[in-house]
Amino acid sequence: MKTIGATSVFKIYICSMTLNYKNISINYTVKGEGDALVLLHGFLETIDMWTDFVPVLSRTRKVICIDLLGHGKTECLGYIHSMENMAEAVFAVLKYLRIEEISCVGHSMGGYVALALAEIYPNLVKDLCLLNSTFEADDHERKVLRARAAQMATTNYENLVRMSFVNLFAPESKVPFASEIKKALAIGLQTPVQGFIAGHKGMAIRPNRYEVFKAIKGKKVIVIGQKDWIVDEDLLVEKSKNTGIETVIFSQGHMSHIENKYELSYFLKRFIEK
């Protein structure tokens, strides 16, 4: 089926589409009917991270998964992909689908994008889950690490991605989830160098969006891995007190969709309940 500005291919009730946006292609999928639930992947990930969750979530929701700029089958828009750039690309998909209100789950960088989307379009995001993510901006040390990674990517990309990716998991997760990690790493290695650099530079310049998150009118949840070195559990829990923000703690690292898959599946089913 062809439509103006988009092409679509249907595969077993999942609609995989490509939207033309600012001379690039944005890849996304749609499954199910009902209120919209948008799932945004993290850095070095694609919509494939949601494969095992979509069948259950789409029983009661229209589930939309979007490859963010420079990831998966979505092309790069520039050499710095700010979170606002990515949010506008997400909005372009939602506008095309004529969706005016969403619940959203954003993993890591996807959470940063979701917060930018909520700031730009405050009436759009009704419920928001930050999955292994944060409303905090990068501190100086993190910005230095991102700048170093962007520079290294031009000369030693594969080793850099391998090292960065494996460190996202809790040490004890690496053996029992070896096959899942290998599969996810293979997907991450397909991220183009430009997408890697543009993503790091975009994350480094994002502002603190604590007030944006507090202003969400519906459900506000942060899912935190106890062994996730990327986010500050104590800080997030403390700042969430008396704000209407719920914190959920899982036992492992930054990749809860792999390391705490069953716990996350149970949580997400509860999150989308009205």
TrEMBL record:
<dbReference type="InterPro" id="IPR029058">
    <property type="entry name" value="AB_hydrolase_fold"/>
</dbReference>
<protein>
    <submittedName>
        <fullName>Pimeloyl-ACP methyl ester carboxylesterase</fullName>
    </submittedName>
</protein>
<dbReference type="Pfam" id="PF00561">
    <property type="entry name" value="Abhydrolase_1"/>
</dbReference>
<feature type="domain" description="AB hydrolase-1">
    <location>
        <begin position="36"/>
        <end position="260"/>
    </location>
</feature>
<dbReference type="InterPro" id="IPR000073">
    <property type="entry name" value="AB_hydrolase_1"/>
</dbReference>
<dbReference type="InterPro" id="IPR050266">
    <property type="entry name" value="AB_hydrolase_sf"/>
</dbReference>
